[in-house]
Amino acid sequence: MKFRVVHLTRYEYAEPVSLCHSIAHLKPLQTRRQRCLASQLRVDPWPAVMREREDFFGNRVNYFSIQQAHSVLEVIATSEVDVNVLALPDADKTPTWERVVTRLYDRGDALMTNARMFTLPSPQVPLDAEAREFAAVSFTAGRPILEATLDLMGRIFREFEYDPLSTTVATPLAEVMQQRRGVCQDFAHVAIAGLRGLGLAARYVSGYLETLPPPGQIKLQGADASHAWFAVLIPELGWVDFDPTNNQTPNLQYITTAVGRDFQDVTPLRGIFYGGGTHDLRVAVDVNRLEQPAPSV
Questions:
Q1: 215-254 pLDDT, tens per residue?
Q2: Which of 41, 121, 130, 159 is 20 to 30 A from 27 via CA?
Q3: Domain coordinates in residue numbering, the chain
Q4: For residue 45, is the peptide bond before it cis, meaning its omega torsion is within 30 degrees of 0?
Q5: Looking at the domain 2-83+267-289, which fold is it?
Q6: Positive or negative CA dihedral for 119, 120, 122, 125?
Q7: Single pTM value for the model
Q8: Where is the Transglutaminase-like domain (predicted)?
Q9: Under DSSP, is residue 37 helix (H, G, I), strand (E, B) or coil?
């Protein structure tokens, strides 16, 4: 399935900004389940400096610097992506989660040992006893890892309430655990904290989820949004994604932009600026399917 993604970010400042430096994680990754066919970033005003690099996690990161006075900053990322679905084995046919923890310390298994950094606490996902205890209910002794992770995902979906007004990007994990509500970022952090507490490698995934309008209604432009979920490293399968917000493993409607230890590693757009005072922020995302060529006869 091919998609075109347009992500617009617009800042309007109360007073002119004299200088800003920003980094963006807005260009999709090349992964086993997706190919980025094309991607471009348009910044207005035109930056004096603009560079792209690959970060430690393999993400595409754009840096830009605007060195002229401006009252409006607009960043538009436009990408075309081809997405496929990865077939998963029967959940009960995967290795036990304890065996996966052991494999992380097998020096002859480079994929697993290189992922050990994702077992450690990170700025927004500290080791949390309550999150570990929550995950442990799903990860009983000898349980296959895929079966246990699917169960954990389902329990977060059922026991945590989606409430976009209850948290911000800075809300501590402990507070989310206490109030049992939040958004996709929070639910991913809860799962990652619990999994890391058990010794497993878990990472944060940011991207987009195509939303479809109710039958008979037209899709509203700009109504899509950034999304977040988590992934667990499973031997022979690699990184497997799970979306606790919707209780499903990502399908054709999921597009990955970046991966990291937590939200801080993959923030869509962040930076520093001088001046400006207060500002208004507008974000609009469109994920649209591209016409597929008709099969040849």
A1: 776 665 545 778 999 999 998 899 999 999 999 999 999 9
A2: 121
A3: 2-83+267-289, 91-265
A4: yes
A5: Immunoglobulin-like (2.60.40)
A6: positive
A7: 0.93
A8: 176-246
A9: strand
